[in-house]
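Known limitations

Files may contain more than one protein. Parsers should not assume a single record per file. Below, a two-record file is shown to illustrate correct handling: read the sequence, read the token line, then continue until end of file.
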Amino acid sequence: MKRIVIAGGGIAGTIVANRLARQLSPELEKGEVEIIVINASDRHIYQPGQLLIPFGVTDTGEIIRNEKELLDSKIKLVIKEISKIDVQNHSVITADGTAYNYDELVIATGSHLQWDEVPGYRAVYSPWDLESAQKLREVLQSFTGGTVVINVAKLPHKCPVAPMEMTLMLDDYLRRRGLREKTEIIYTYPVPGVFGIKTTNDVMIKIFEERGIKVVSPFNVTRVNPEEKTIESQEGEKLKFDLALGVPPHKGAKVIEDSGIGDRRNWVPTDKFTLKMKDHSDVYVIGDTTDLPISKAGSTADFESYVVAGNIVNDIRGNNSTKLFDGSVFCYIATGLDSGTYIRFNYNYPPVPPPPSYVHWWGKLLYNKLYWTVTAKAIV
């Protein structure tokens, strides 16, 4: 029997596991293949939905499902913490000491918030954390005006367009409450502009200017002082705030460091086309876990899942064929509470967002609902 182990769940692990189960259904039914997903939690959170919680667009219950209910019934789900990924001995070891040997491994351990890398950063409200998103909703309901600083602590982070979305939705939210003239919004970003890709930055920065949103960049945060309500950067800026929103630093999972298979930020070295871990033909890397210079976004994991699943199926069936990843990404960008745009790009073609539209906003909301029945279950 061939065993495929997916180390980690979430968006990336769930999609690739279901895609494998669909393509390998005959082998699974005959007992020739086994698919195991190992994850510390049985909850599946659609993290992009967290961004909508503070503005009352969605509720917590709409973005959480049980992992077992999402996975194909032929997939074995193991709810355990992973303590080590031993690529030399082809096994994944859980905290209780159990070793799961594999013929094919998919690492989908994701990216994780590092609040304490920046002193005082826990004073910043962040939709990248579910509990913080819920608290921010309450804070915004009682907000009466002042200075709001929005900060991106470090690149890369998951949902790259989301800081811009948060800023523009906040702008719209305050206008609807009659508070925008009483509020200064300051957007801070580690590199010049508001986004790291020039073609998108050129479009989005004009929207920021039209909305009267101040941009301070480059701004590499070094400290947040909760008592003084200030945020400082290594460039020498010191900004006062009444409310601070932001994106904490991100790193790959600790198990990547403990296993000695990542770089200094725990991203796993990955071939940009085959999505195999470099120097390991039986290990694939997917989603936020890779060190690839592309968006750490759910759509990236979805596009990657076709390549990873296809190549594993070819390996198992002995097909002498290799699928290649072209760097595809698709992200909706909310530009308010009833308008949006999007970016679609790959390694060769940079994104240029179309003009904001009501249609794209509803496309974003519709996709959030379809995620559960279409994307997560790898229907297409």
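...continuing to the second record:
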Amino acid sequence: GWMGLMHGISWIVGVNSDAYRAIGRADLSTKIMLLCLLYYIPTYLIAVQYNLEVFLIVRFLVACAAIPIHFFIADKYLGLKWHVVLKELSWMIAAVIFMGLLGYTLSANLIGMDEWQRLLLVVPLAVGLYLIFLFKEWGFLRELINTALSKK
């Protein structure tokens, strides 16, 4: 779960490196990573002394701490404002929060079912809620599905 959260947070700025390459500044991704490594490495070295869960939580928090650095550079070189990005992602963020709350609440309250039964019940319900919540994006989803199904 922590790895999924970490990757989800990281992909908010994941496409920036492609944008930097597009404007001829591929070096920016490397410079950002070098800057982040200044606190990644010591933080990881401390966290690894505990247990895997602590390490994964710290890794998630470190990824969150890198987001402002990415937004600062994206604003400076791409003119990409953080509040615009968050506004565009607000529906998806809300959908993920509701999906996570539904999944957690259901799985915690389904007493008497084994893990596989809970998984087979909770995951489709959570994904269904996520898709329903993203009704605003259905045009995009329809276009994505049509593109995936088209035979070229």
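Parsers that stop after the first record will miss the second one. For reference, the second record is described as follows. The radius of gyration is 19 Å.
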